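Marked as duplicate of an earlier ticket. Keeping the data here for the record.
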Amino acid sequence: MYTHMSKQYSSVSMSSREQLPTLKITNGHCTAEIALFGAHLLSFVPNADATERLWLSETAVFNKSKPIRGGIPICWPWFADIYPDKDASDNTKLPAHGFVRTQDWQVIEIAESTDATTITLSPNQLGLYGFSEKLLASVEFTFSKKCSIRLITKNTSKQALTITAALHSYFNVTNIHQTKIIGVAGKYIDKTNASAAFEQLLPYLISSETDRIHLQDENNHFDFIHLICPDKKISIEQHGHDSVVIWNPWQKKSKTMADMQDNSYIDMLCIEASITQGTILAAQQQHELVQIIG
């Protein structure tokens, strides 16, 4: 049972993964776990089928020396090396995916009802790497029959500010060779092929190293995606994004990553709700990047 602000919460308890404190959620619809380091969702298991939706590396590091491999990392206020309003040549010294996934977050609020548990967290440090301290971030997790992750950015300054961001979700797909992606089509930028543009063939299957940015247009919005696996179906709903990133390192790259096993690429696939083109927030404006997993 978790105690915060002199109140006890029956669905939330304190736990840990090695050196990292976590929140464990158990309610009438699901179980889940959040690491306070990075506000990182580690697990979501609906009671309806008792099947884990998220992939977490068996060799993930839980000592704050590096980001956690798997689950849902939060990339903010930039994604990959896409630092808004800065020349790419200046980005070599920036940490990949922003500065909030490698710091502790604090609990702002826990709300419980008969149908859901909602937890709101915010990072301990803002205003790093040239970003304004007036640019605020928080994340709201709602656990029920589905899991909702809402990354909220508020521009409390008097001028417009730009961000890129992503919910870098790793999904447990059982077998990548037998997994089909439904709801993503059209052209994509292939990061494994000098960022050349290609048209996605259907059915959408993964058969090699994959790092693709699918940009939304008038014909493709990528709001509803389904992963069809031999023994499960994962539903993904997204809002507030301008693109979806699909990533799998495949075997050769997995072997170079200490926090992934050589063959762990077989049972994971990243489907990332992303802002890669940059979102401009006017003074006092708020933006929400949302992913709902079922």
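See parent ticket for discussion. Helices lie at 250-254.
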